[in-house]
Specification:
Length: about 850
């Protein structure tokens, strides 16, 4: 991390804290960081002094100390992102090829004699932005972070003089002070609309312009034109879950579906209007220098007749600037769509594209045609008038309940008969009973009705998929298909089974075989170009049976499903439900995609982007371009460069590792009846329910069991106390029983195993049992004595195995920059962890006044560790 950024920001924060809270307070904050750093260096006396100082903090200083540490961690994130930007810019300035770049990928494809044009024709990457119940940053805070990043760029500009730099530093102090005076934790739980608007912010501020620039680079690197406008789907597109994800979410239903589609639509049209207006200001071409095509001239006459209130033609200069005039009319049509005055707009993005193509046809210049106007055309193709397709998601049990209420004979029927009843109802077009079921089943029916109305009004792209969570049987998907058919013919959905638990993943090929064998379902696939999306759940499979078992089950399911679909002539698109934490498929996107089994991608992939992962990957336009570039590069390589299959003995080893790690993990988490009590005492899971960081409840039920707890808060809670248990528990016992030489060979030559060990290594580096032991104060002595020795012993086993396999004497020895970044963060996180233990003790004893500071420690630790959920 760039020392100058860190020192500058810490100095500015000290100025702000001195003004706001006094010099003594500001000095105390610096002392805490310096002392925590000494503790990490092994200074035992510093540890005693730190704990004493934290314990003796005055009530009035407690919350400000927490906020100050949290602020420093968020500024460390900004400094880290700026260091990534510097590296990217340095590669570009030196003309050297950056690792995982499209330029490097083009060279690798050429080495393997891959036709780039064919690779691009097969390429389709869809990124799905989801709301995340552990993303703590408020929209207001994001605005302040953005402002600081921009100001730091200007401070660093070598053209900035002394007086200008002084002014910029004053502006930084102003922004930091406003940020300091802003509530870090929401006072009320966010509504679904808040999550929708937060997602839109990512599109509006970053992705909308980063995507066409990335596609320009893709085209340049591979030296092959993209088939823009000539294919049914773009190379890169987006979907979104907020507003349509009903699974366990009582606030999502018909109203939020309708509202979200409208918000998406207005944002998309507004973005297009602004870009067209910007072009109109620039396109000052004179008709004396740019001959006007007959088609464009005719279109101008039609525009004047369609929009008599538009005065653009009455301005004298527009008589001899036809391109500016045409763009003015286009802008007016888009404005008409926003203000609803009744004047003509566009029925669909295809009409807008045709108008823009008329402008292209009169440019007579490749330089201009391939510049900002082509980027606008790509924005039309990718984002259209919908911005991102809304996915609907609901649990299979709710789908069942809805069908049982509406299709006579279904409730009492066994599975095979259910499939037959549904197939017959689909083919015959039966609608069943004309009533609205009660509860969540009725809300699902209403949401599908709302989606059908929106699709009829705006086109099928506004709602793209219906994801059936916890799919276990073919009837779950057929039932979703029938319910959607009842809603209306305009609803052209892809029905996506989501296989989540280890058992469901294992049975996935059998489930899909029954679906493919259903004439009613196969007819639907034929209408959709013989394409099927299947979603793989990283969250519940990891929570269900350990990290290694989850990863191996996911890989096995991918291979089996891909082979099955290929044999039937079906184009399978795997949808990876990755999270930010290592136990939920987190880690570097590039490495994860390249490690996918050969033949499972075939150019197509769908991936979730969640919470703090979105902030880290798309928080800055250049970082967004880098992230998109890495994803596209990885998919191109994984799809077109075959890797030799792993030897049978290697796969047998992973089979054994998966079985053993699952056995050890489940023996602790599920088979021991006292573990749930230990979990609820040693983690701050009780605080998460009060933390207003997501609109979805943390649990699917109210029985307080681990089974009912959602995977994301499960992982988040273990990250807070620095144990990160789901990310590594079970791996130590499994790895300790194998042959080290074979593991080393697998690590060197098998990307899947290398990715597995790398992910474990990252999780272990972030695990801190020294800090975690402080949380044992919260645990009943008999529970502590029973469980902690098991956890510590398993941690030591997995750490020893990982170091032996990598051949290093310490974790992340090959990533010194990452070590430096985390070494700077830890002394800010550690005081928060110690205060969290103190505050958990107080609040569990009934001190309600300490609830708000406790929540502050939760968000602060999340900011510091980042990959939390």
């Amino acid at each position: 991390m760039e020392a100058s950024d860190v020192e500058l920001l810490e100095g500015l924060v000290h100025d702000v804290l001195t003004e706001q809270c006094g010099a003594e307070f500001a000095d105390t904050v610096q002392w805490l960081h310096a002392t925590a750093a000494r503790v990490r260096e092994g200074d035992d006396s510093a540890g005693g002094a730190l704990f004493t100082r934290l314990h003796e903090l005055a009530e009035g200083d407690l919350e400000p100390i927490i906020r100050a540490c949290s602020l420093q961690l968020q500024l460390a994130n900004i400094a880290e992102e700026r260091e990534r930007l510097r590296r990217r810019r340095a590669y570009d300035a030196e003309g050297t090829t950056q690792r995982e770049s499209l330029t490097q990928t083009a060279g690798l494809l050429e080495d393997h004699h891959v036709d780039p044009a064919q690779a691009l024709r097969d390429l389709h990457v869809e990124l799905v932005l989801t709301a995340h119940p552990t993303e703590a940053a408020r929209r207001s805070v994001l605005d302040h972070q953005w402002a600081i990043t921009e100001l730091l760029d200007r401070v660093e500009d070598p053209r900035t003089g002394i007086s200008r730099r002084r002014t910029l530093l004053d502006e930084l102090r102003e922004v930091l002070t406003i940020w300091w005076q802003t509530d870090e934790v929401r006072r009320a739980r966010p509504h679904v609309e808040d999550e929708v608007r937060r997602t839109l912010y990512v599109f509006e501020s970053v992705l909308y312009d980063a995507v066409p620039r990335t596609l320009d680079e893709l085209e340049r690197a591979l030296d092959s034109p993209l088939p823009d406008g000539d294919r049914p789907e773009p190379v890169l597109e987006f979907a979104s879950w907020p507003g349509g994800d009903m699974d366990g979410h009582p606030e999502v239903g018909a109203d939020t579906v309708t509202q979200t589609i409208e918000l998406h639509r207005r944002a998309a049209i507004r973005l297009l209007r602004d870009r067209v207006a910007r072009l109109a200001r620039r396109f000052s071409h004179s008709e004396r220098h740019v001959p006007l095509s007959a088609e464009l001239a005719a279109s101008l006459e039609r525009d004047a007749a369609d929009m008599p209130s538009a005065r653009v033609l009455r301005r004298p200069h527009h008589e001899w600037e036809p391109l500016r005039t045409k763009l003015g009319f286009i802008e007016r049509r888009l404005i008409n769509m926003l203000d609803g005055r009744g004047e003509v707009g566009y029925d669909g993005p295809g009409q807008l594209r045709a108008d823009l193509e008329l402008v292209v046809g009169s440019l007579h210049s490749g330089h201009v045609a391939h510049g900002s106007l082509r980027r606008l055309l790509r924005q039309v193709d990718i984002f259209g008038f919908h911005l991102a397709g809304l996915d609907l998601r609901q649990n299979a049990n709710v789908v069942d309940a809805a069908v049982e209420a509406l299709l006579p004979g279904y409730a009492a029927a066994p599975e095979e008969e259910r499939q037959a009843l549904l197939a017959d109802a689909i083919v015959a077009g039966r609608v069943g009973l004309q009533r609205r079921p009660a509860g969540t089943a009725g809300e699902l029916v209403a949401a599908l009705d709302a989606a059908a109305l929106a699709s009829e009004a705006y086109g099928p792209e506004v709602v793209r998929c219906l994801i059936v969570s916890m799919t276990e049987k073919p009837s779950h998907v057929l039932g979703a298909r029938w319910l959607a058919q009842r809603a209306g013919a305009a609803l052209d959905l892809r029905f996506v089974p989501l296989f989540e638990t280890l058992d469901d993943l294992e049975r996935a090929p059998e489930t899909m075989a029954s679906l493919y064998g259903s004439a009613a379902y196969r007819r639907l696939l034929e209408e959709q170009g013989d394409r099927q999306i299947v979603m793989l759940g990283y969250s519940d499979s990891g929570k269900d049976g350990s990290f290694i078992a989850s990863q191996w089950a996911l890989r096995g399911a991918q291979l089996a499903l891909s082979r099955q679909a290929a044999e039937l002539g079906i184009e399978l698109e795997l949808f990876h439900g990755r999270g930010g934490s290592t136990s939920r498929g987190g880690g570097p996107m590039y490495r994860a995609i390249v490690a996918q089994p050969t033949g499972s991608l075939r150019g197509r992939i769908r991936i979730t982007e969640q919470g703090e992962t979105i902030s880290a990957r798309y928080g800055h336009p250049e970082l967004a371009e880098r992230s998109l570039e890495q994803t596209l590069s990885a998919v191109l390589l994984a799809s077109n460069v075959a890797r030799p299959a792993a030897p049978d003995d290697w796969r047998a080893d992973i089979d054994r590792l998966a079985r053993r790690s699952r056995e050890v993990y489940r023996a602790l988490v599920y088979d021991d009846p006292d573990f749930a009590r230990f979990f609820f005492q040693v983690t701050p899971i009780d605080a998460l329910a009060d933390l207003n960081i997501g609109s979805r409840p943390p649990s699917r039920g109210g029985d307080g069991s681990i089974e009912s707890l959602r995977a994301i808060p499960w992982v988040f809670a273990w990250t807070q106390n620095r144990i990160l248990l789901p990310s590594w528990y079970g791996a130590g016992s499994a790895l300790a029983e194998g042959e080290l030489d074979r593991y080393r060979a697998m690590h060197a030559d098998w990307p899947f195993f290398a990715s597995l060990i790398s992910t474990l290594e990252m999780a272990l580096f972030k695990t801190d049992l020294g800090v975690a032991e402080r949380y044992l104060r919260l645990v009943d002595p008999e529970l502590r004595d029973h469980f902690w020795p098991q956890i510590a012993a398993e941690h030591d086993k997995v750490k020893a195995s990982v170091l032996a396999i990598t051949g290093n004497d310490r974790l992340l020895a090959g990533a010194p920059q990452l070590q430096d970044r985390l070494a700077h963060r830890d002394p800010w996180v550690d005081p928060l962890s110690h205060l969290q233990v103190e505050l958990l003790e107080r609040t569990r004893a009934g001190a309600t006044a300490d609830r708000q500071p406790l929540l502050g420690t939760v968000t602060g630790i999340a900011f510091g560790l980042r990959n939390t959920g």
